[in-house]
Amino acid sequence: MTMLFRIFWVGRTKDGYLKEGIDRYRTLLGYLASVSVIEIKEEKGKDREASSSAEGRRILKQAQSYVLLDERGKELTSREFARFLEERGKVDFVIGGAYGVSGEVRERADAVIALSRMTFTHEMVRVIFLEQLYRAMTILKGREYHH
């Protein structure tokens, strides 16, 4: 069974070193699962609430059932995350923009998980999450990557 993942994130990745990390883990994941990234248009403006609300509407047009990545979510070990994925087989994930996500996006999430209690930039989270997704897949496939 091929595992299917769609990742919705707000805006483009601007820093080259982050793009390299994203490309690396997307390539590695390509051998283990079907992973697609959907970039949601970033809202420009000074009003944080209006920006996250507009981005939230764009997210909700495309993602009906999803797991939200948020520092206030439930923390999982890498093995727990692997089991979480295995139980579902197909998962959509949402990563908010610079100002997070709207209340509606948070409320509609099927689950909210945290990569850490620490705060990372929304662009760094992309690389960290893809690495954890890769790690989880190697756990499920019995590969040596996870020690």
SSE series: EHEHEHEHEH
CATH fold topology: Alpha/beta knot
The percentage of residues in β strands lies in 15-25%
* CATH 2nd-level architecture: 3-Layer(aba) Sandwich
Shape call: globular
The CATH superfamily turns out to be SPOUT methyltransferase, trefoil knot domain
Major sheet: order of its strands? 2-1-4-3-5
What is the β-strand count?
Answer: 5
Number of H- or I-type helical stretches: 5
Radius of gyration: 15 Å
End-to-end separation: 25 Å
* Backbone structural class: alpha/beta
For the largest beta-sheet, the strand count, sense and barrel status come to: 5 strands, parallel
Give an overview of the whole structure.
By secondary structure, this protein is an alpha/beta fold. The chain has one domain (4-141): Alpha/beta knot (3-Layer(aba) Sandwich). It has five helices and five strands; from the N terminus they run βαβαβαβαβα. It has helices at residues 16-30, 48-62, 78-88, 103-108, 122-141; strands at residues 4-10, 34-40, 67-75, 90-95, 111-114. The chain has a five-stranded parallel sheet. Strand 1 (4-10), helix 1 (16-30) and strand 2 form a beta-alpha-beta unit. Helix 3 crosses helix 5. The longest helix is centred in the last third of the chain and has 20 residues, at 122-141. The radius of gyration is 15 Å and the shape is globular. The two termini are 25 Å apart. The mean pLDDT is 94.
